[in-house]
Design goal:
disordered N terminus, 5 helices
């Protein structure tokens, strides 16, 4: 009985020690990972297939929830045939001029690199945590005339 209590106490202490860093930082903003960005794009394409264009785009833009707008990750969708016109976006932000601070046309770079097999596109973007321009990469997938994407900040 005493061994069981000691084991349980040691287990609880171990869990608290391992969880302390996460608990201490739970109120800090965090960044999404490349794997999370890729998974978010996969979920977006799946929703597009399941519910259709209008329902999916409405979800991404007007009610994305954590599936499509989490940490610093969000879904955007471009219409490939219309010069990378934004047709859905999970953050309310003006993206009319997709030019990075170095003069790179982000929309053109995405159009040029996006394939059905997917690709990473690199550019500079304002970091929401620091307010400074940092390298950013977006995972983009071309699917049925649209380009689905999600970017990660790389400070």
């Amino acid at each position: 009985m005493e061994k069981v209590l000691l084991f349980k106490a040691a287990l609880i202490i171990s869990i608290l020690i391992l969880a302390a860093p996460a608990l201490a930082g739970e109120n800090k903003q965090k960044r999404g990972t490349p794997a999370q960005a890729q998974a978010m794009v996969a979920r977006a394409v799946a929703l597009f297939e399941e519910e259709g264009l209008q329902a999916a785009f409405d979800r991404f833009t007007n009610r994305p929830g954590a599936e499509f707008n989490h940490l610093d990750l969000y879904i955007f969708v471009l219409k490939a045939e219309e010069g990378a016109r934004i047709v859905a976006h999970a953050r309310t932000r003006s993206l009319a001029t997709l030019i990075d601070p170095g003069g790179l046309s982000i929309g053109r770079a995405i159009l040029d690199k996006a394939t059905a097999k997917s690709a990473w596109v690199d550019y500079g973007w304002k970091d929401p945590l620091t307010g400074k321009v940092v390298p950013k990469s977006s995972w983009v997938v071309r699917h049925q005339g649209h380009i689905f994407g999600c970017g990660i900040h790389k400070p």
